[in-house]
Amino acid sequence: MLGKLLKYDFRSVSREYMLLWPACLVIALVMRFTIFSRLDNVTNDLLANITNVLTVFTYVAVLVAMFIITLLFIIQRFYKGILGSEGYLMNTLPVKPWQLVTSKLICAMVLLLVSTAVAGLSVFLMIPISLQDILQVDFAVLWDRLMEVFPSFLLLVAELVLCSLVGTVASITQLYFSMALGNLFGKNRLIGSIVSYVGISMALNILYTVATTLLSISAAYYQELWNRDPVLLLHGIIWFAILSSAVLAVIFFFGTTYILKNKLNLE
Amino acid sequence: MADSLICCRGLSKAYGQRMALQGVDLDLGRGRIVGLLGPNGSGKTTLIKILCGLLRPTQGVVTVDGQAPGPYTKSIVSYLPDRMYFAAWMKATDLFDLFADFYEDFDRQKAMDMCRSLGVDPGDQIKTMSKGTKEKVQLVLVMARKAQLYLLDEPIAGVDPAARDFIMNTILTNYNEAGTVLISTHLISDIERVLDEVVFLQSGRVILHNSVDNIREQEGKSVDALFREMFRAMPMEGGRF
Questions:
Q1: CATH code of the domain in which B91 resides
Q2: Does the predicted interface ipTM exceed a cut of 0.90?
Q3: B84–A85 C-beta distance less than 8 A
C-alpha cells in the first residue's frame, strides 16, 4: 500500500520537477560555454553582457524555485492533500495513517535529495574543468595523505551526512506535526498550524538553551576533552545532534499519526 | 459476517459546545436503500463522516460489518462526499488508476462505460471541467465499486431536477445489490420512490427509523408528507413574538 501511495505522491509533483531539474542542468551547461569560457577575455559587447546577466539570473531563479517548490510541496501536499478537501479522498482509502504520512515523508526526502544533487551537479557542469585535468591528479597519493592527517575522515563524512538526513526528517515531521495540531483548532486551522510551529520551535530553543547552559557549567571539562582529542569531541557533538534529532523526529511522526488516527477533524 | 451492516450505540459527536449527534442508536441491514433525512444541521453529514472514518465520535461505538472504522471498513465502503476532493494535476483516468490500485472492488471498465453514458470525457483535466461534470466523475468513482456500503452525502443537492432523476437512475442501475445504500438528502420527494427505509434525524437524534411500506401503511401518507408534517412545526416554536 505504501508503494501505491508513493506512486501518486510522486505523480502529483512530477510535472514541476521534470521541468525544473533538466532546466537547471541545461542552464548550467549554457553558462559553462558562455560566461565561464570568456572569463579570461572579458568582452565589452553589450548584448553579450546582457545575455550573461539574464543567464545567471535564470539559473539562480531556477535554483531558488527548485527549493521553494520543494518546501511548498512538503507543506502543501500535507496540508491540502491530507487535511484539506483532498483528505476526503486520501483518508477514506483503505490504508493506515502512518502509511499516508510515511509516503509524504519519503517523497519529500527524495525530492530534497535529488534537488540538492542536481544543484551540486549544475555547479560542477558550469565550471569548465576538463576530465583530463581531473584525472591528472594523483588520487592515491591525495587519499593516503588525507588518511595520514585525518584517519576518521570517512567516518566523519558519514556522520555528517546522517546528521543532515536525520535533521531534515525532524524538520519535515515538525511541519507535519504542526499542521496536524492546527487541524484541532476548529475554524482557525491555518493560524493554529503556524502557532503550533512557532510554539514548538520556541520550546525547542528554550530546551536547547537550558541544555547548553547546564553543559557549559563544565566548560573546563570540554576544554580538557578538546585538548586531549578534538576529533573525538567532534564525533560526540555530531552524535548528540543525530540522536536528539532522531528523538524529535520519532515524537513528531507518531504525534502526527496519532492525531490523524484519533482526532482527525476535516472541515 | 456480522448480522447488521451498520451498528451505532450511544453515538455522540460534539464540535466544541455544539452537539452534532446525541446518543444515536441505529442498526442497518444489508441490501437496503436507506434515506437519511433531516433538515440542514441535523447531523446527517456528521453521521456519514463517522461511518466512513473521517471523524471520530466523541462518545459511543460504531461498527461497519462488525469492525470499527479503519482500513478494513474503508475497503468495503464507497463514499461520496459533499464536496470535491480532486487534486489539481488529475485527470479522471488518474483517479481510475488510483481507485483500481486501492480498491479491489473497483471496476475500471464500468467506470469508463458510465463516463460515456454520462457524457464525460475521462481524459479531460479535472480542473477544466464544470462543477456538474466534476460531480459526475465523483459519482462514477463511487458507483463503479462493488461495495458493501455506499455512503452518498447529498448526491442530488447541487443539480437541477432533470439531472436528479438521471443521477438517481445511475445510482440504482449500478449499485451492488447485496450492499446497502445510505443516501442523505433533504430533497425527499425526488428519491422517495426508491427507498426501502428511512431514518429521520433531528438535532442530532434519530426520531424515526422505519420502512417506507410501514410508514405508508400506518400513517397513510408518503414519506415526504410525513417529513413535512414532522418538521414543519419547528420554526414556529421559537417564533412567537
A1: 3.40.50.300
A2: no
A3: yes
